[in-house]
Specification:
It comes from Tegillarca granosa (Malaysian cockle). This is FLYWCH-type domain-containing protein. With 198 residues, the protein is an alpha+beta fold. The chain folds into 2 domains: 5-88, no CATH class; 101-159, no CATH class. The chain has helices at 101-117, 123-134, 147-159; strands at 5-9, 28-32, 42-45, 50-56, 60-65, 78-82, 85-88, 185-188, 194-197. The strands form 2 sheets. Strands 1-2-3-4-5-6-7 form a 7-stranded mixed β-barrel. A two-stranded antiparallel sheet has the order 8-9.
């Protein structure tokens, strides 16, 4: 998991929904790798807004606000990433920010990364360690994802690594997913029966 702190140059829009604060100048942005549900990069800013990649270009990426609804309820805010610089689009966010979203995405990315790298560690333990390392009680509730959601996220990340269910007795044992010393012997009898001694 890697992150980058970058400065943003902002262009403002006079047409802002009532009750929505304009995006501040000189925002600090951070790219959090594998932070989305599909383990893609996410972009978060110091105001509390989050973005995902809309398209890749030859010189960078176009980011769009993650707030997606039906019709006109989708947020039109966008950011252009060009050669390491970030330029805010001409349209403001049409919804309130979620301060602490950067911390939340960092926790989620850490949970998914550790779930894949530590297949024998329980999802609950992985979540506890990620929260203990990255959570900040001073920040708003937006910075603290629900524990049960993080546990499900860890288990989903592991699903893609699990071997397929065997459809016959002649299957290969995925030893990488068996603790050392757990499997004592793999015995196949003359009549074709197979016994795993643990």
């Amino acid at each position: 998991m890697a992150a980058s702190n970058l400065q943003l140059r902002t262009l403002t829009d006079d047409h802002i929904e009532p009750g929505i604060e304009p995006v501040q100048f000189n925002l600090t942005f951070k790219i959090v790798q594998t932070a989305t549900r599909k383990c893609k990069d996410a972009l978060v800013d110091s105001a509390g807004y989050s973005y995902n990649v809309k398209r890749n270009t030859k010189t960078g990426r176009d980011w769009q606000c993650v707030f997606r609804g039906s019709g006109t309820t989708s947020c039109p805010a966008s950011v252009k990433e060009r050669d390491g610089s970030f330029i805010f689009g001409q349209r403001e966010h049409n919804h309130k920010a979620a301060p602490g979203s950067e911390t939340a995405k960092t926790i989620k990315a850490k949970v998914k990364q550790d779930a894949v790298n530590n297949v024998f560690m329980s999802a609950g333990t992985i979540v506890e360690q990620a929260i203990a390392t990255h959570a900040d009680e001073v920040q708003t509730h937006f910075s603290r994802p629900k524990v049960e959601n993080l546990i499900r996220m860890a288990n989903r990340a592991r699903e893609q690594l699990r071997p397929n269910e065997p459809d016959s007795m002649d299957f290969q044992i995925a030893e990488n997913y068996i603790p050392q010393g757990f499997l004592r012997k793999d015995i196949t009898t003359e009549d074709g029966q197979r016994h795993l001694v643990v």
